[in-house]
Amino acid sequence: MTEVIDHTPPPPSAESPAPDLATAVQRVLAASDEPLTVSKLRARLPGALRQTDLKELTEALDRQVAANVLYKYPKYRSQQDRYWDRGMSTHVAQLLRVSLEGGPLPWSELRRKLPAYAQPQAQQVLEEQIGQGLLHRHPRAGSRGGERFGVRPPDPRDYLRLELPELFARLASLGFGRPQIRQAALELLHEEEWDVEPPPLPEKAVAQAETHPESPDAGQM
Fold first, then answer.
1. Could you give all domains of the chain from N- to C-terminal order, each with its CATH number?
2. Which SS3 state, helix, strand or coil, does residue 136 take?
3. Kind and range of the H or E element at 120?
4. Residue 103's CB: how many other CB atoms inside 10 A?
5. Per-residue pLDDT tens for 200-215?
6. Among 1, 91, 128, 165, which residue has the least CB neighbours within 10 Å?
7. First to last CA, the chain
């Protein structure tokens, strides 16, 4: 009798094999939105790998840093080094976005919100983020202050909110009531005529104005 040999492969195991330490570390850091200390990283490892000795884990991380697989970050609010699978420029860009989530800020305030280790690279990263359309320049608000930066493009409504109270106050000082001013403003905004740009000055007039500016003493003889 001929023996029948079954070549059907055995069914796959229901449980996937546990990843090795290096692979597990890379998965944890890929899922993290910031660099992690050794302790935080170990706490996110799967299964028995959470029992890995901190010294052994640190040595494994440093080997991956030496192999240019991971990046080592300065200590910050902890005595432990931090590790991530993305470089410093990516981290600084993330810090900038987090700092600007509350609203646009001038550069001086934005820089103060960053940790000291991120400040040397911050301005270059900011310009790169603006160039890529990920962050945005905002005109200065009011007569004081400088250019600001935000995570969203500038909105003219924000500037109107700053200008309208002063305008309404000036009109109220002339004797107009606030409901009357508000109603007039709404009606004006629905008219098309007010939104017409003034015609440009003739080139000759512009040249004369630039060449012969009016003297403050003109007319005084």
1. 21-84 (1.10.10.10), 88-150 (1.10.10), 155-193 (no CATH)
2. strand
3. helix 119-131
4. 11
5. 656 655 455 555 544 4
6. 1
7. 133
